[in-house]
Amino acid sequence: MTLKELEALDEPQRAARLLPVDALLPGHARVTLGTEDAGRFLSGLRRRGTRANAPHVAALGPDGQLLGTAHIRAGELIPTRLLSPIEIKQMSGSTEPVPV
């Protein structure tokens, strides 16, 4: 499908054709964070834990929404790239505030 064809669709049809953004991260381990840890992660803070080392991690919020990428070293989740709360809100279509 071309971009022009995609733009011609209405919003529900367009959404049905698009893959979620985390489809771009097929080789990344998934780590789901609770609400408090998700907010801290989005602030760029490392999260200590007992996780196994992993070079590529997709960090997800409690609702499964992608928050960014990270890596794990010595059990610590270290943010690499973060999505802004505005981007997260736009991707989810939510009107609820995103924790920061």
Keywords:
100 residues; alpha+beta; Archaeosine Trna-guanine Transglycosylase, Chain: A, domain 4; 4-stranded mixed sheet; 4 helices; 29% helix; 26% strand
What's a quick, concise take on this entry?
It is built from four helices and four strands; from the N terminus they run ααβαβββα. With 100 residues, the chain is an alpha+beta fold.
CATH class of the domain at 26-92 reads Mainly Beta
Total strand count, please?
A: 4
| First-residue to last-residue Cα separation | 36 Å
Pattern of helices and strands: HHEHEEEH
Shape: elongated
Individual helix count: 4
- Mean pLDDT value: 87
Ranges where pLDDT stays below 50 over 5 or more residues in a row are none
Using only C-alpha atoms, the radius of gyration works out to 15 Å
CATH fold-level assignment of the domain at 26-92? Archaeosine Trna-guanine Transglycosylase, Chain: A, domain 4
Helical proportion?
25-40%
Q: Profile the largest sheet.
A: 4 strands, mixed
- Biggest sheet strand order reads 1-2-3-4
> How much strand content do the residues show?
25-35%
Structural class: alpha+beta
In the CATH classification, which architecture of the domain at 26-92 applies? Roll
What is the CATH homologous superfamily assignment of the domain at 26-92?
A: PUA domain
Structure write-up:
By secondary structure, the chain is α+β, with helices and mostly antiparallel strands. It has a domain at 26-92: Archaeosine Trna-guanine Transglycosylase, Chain: A, domain 4 (Roll), CATH 2.30.130.10. 29% of the residues lie in helices and 26% in strands. It contains four helices and four strands. The protein has helices spanning 3-8, 11-17, 35-42, 85-92, and strands at 29-32, 54-60, 66-73, 76-82. The protein is elongated. The chain starts with a helix and ends in an 8-residue tail after the last helix. The model has no long low-confidence stretch (mean pLDDT 87).
